[in-house]
Write a structure and sequence with these properties.
Layout lengths: L2 E4 L2 E4 L4 E7 L8 E7 L6 E7 L4 E3 L7 E6 L4 E6 L8 E9 L2 E4 L3 E6 L1
Length: about 110
């Protein structure tokens, strides 16, 4: 499974970005997909996940600000990020789980200036 992430960039605090992760195969039959992030000097952490049944989970730090969604027709998962804060600055990675095997996309940098 190939994953292509895009949509990162530089934004001011309070701004918005939308990340996209396009998969090379149908994600409908996968276990789940998700977004993770890793800030400098910190461990990679979960941001949000979505199952093929559209059940979602979010890290407490992003609840109410970020929304994960999926377009099965495009094999793409999105992360809409609103109300961005400087502490959201990190490299964001998408992950797909198929048959309980993990596949990672390349990271996309998100930088939030204060």
């Amino acid at each position: 499974v190939q994953l292509q992430a895009s949509g990162g960039g530089l934004v001011q605090a309070g701004g918005s970005l939308r990340l996209s992760c396009a998969a090379s195969r149908s994600i409908f039959n996968g276990n789940y997909m998700g977004w993770y992030r890793q800030a400098p000097g910190k461990q990679r952490e979960l941001v949000a996940t979505i199952t093929s049944g559209a059940q979602t989970t979010y890290a407490d730090s992003v609840k109410g600000r970020f929304t994960i969604s999926v377009d099965n027709a495009k094999n793409t998962v999105y992360l809409q990020m609103n109300g961005l804060k400087p502490e959201d600055t990190a490299v964001y990675y998408c992950k797909a789980v198929f048959s309980w095997l993990n596949y990672w996309g390349q990271g996309t940098q998100v930088t939030v200036s204060s």
